[in-house]
From TrEMBL:
Keywords: Isoprene biosynthesis, Lyase, Metal-binding. Homotrimer. Pfam families: YgbB. Involved in the biosynthesis of isopentenyl diphosphate (IPP) and dimethylallyl diphosphate (DMAPP), two major building blocks of isoprenoid compounds. Catalyzes the conversion of 4-diphosphocytidyl-2-C-methyl-D-erythritol 2-phosphate (CDP-ME2P) to 2-C-methyl-D-erythritol 2,4-cyclodiphosphate (ME-CPP) with a corresponding release of cytidine 5-monophosphate (CMP). 4-CDP-2-C-methyl-D-erythritol 2-phosphate binds at residues 10-12, 36-37, 58-60, 134-137, 141, 144. The gene is ispF. Pathway: Isoprenoid biosynthesis; isopentenyl diphosphate biosynthesis via DXP pathway; isopentenyl diphosphate from 1-deoxy-D-xylulose 5-phosphate: step 4/6. This is 2-C-methyl-D-erythritol 2,4-cyclodiphosphate synthase.
Amino acid sequence: MDFRIGQGYDVHRLAEGETLWLGGVLIPHSKGTVAHSDGDVLIHAICDAMLGALKLRDIGTHFPDTAAEFKNIDSKILMKKSYELVKQKGYEIVNIDSTVQAQQPKLKPHIPAMEQCMADVLEIDVDRVSVKATTTETLGFEGREEGMSVNAVVLLKRM
């Protein structure tokens, strides 16, 4: 079988008065992400992992933050379009593993909803989507609650 592994990383600044979308789920919090799109840092990292696995560059290449058509766009749309590019190359998702680095809010109660939402968008079984969350023990920009970051890995196989 032909397998491909992709790694994705994304960061967004946090600010009061913004909304916080993670994995397609609106998370109640006093701060949200600052971005051209809806700022879903989790979906963006996963998109980069999918695209990178097939040398399709990155999310910014396909959906630039300079394009008006992507202003405030729902990142679930970007995820669906990214996966369509993967399928056009003859590949499908085996599994996704991701880790959100954020001091606040506590994400554990929201993880099942995030996993299910992204599985639904990608039309795959939820057991193929893993989301984990960790604090940085108050270290770095995540620990100071200035932003959050996500690492993601995707395994693809030829259909």
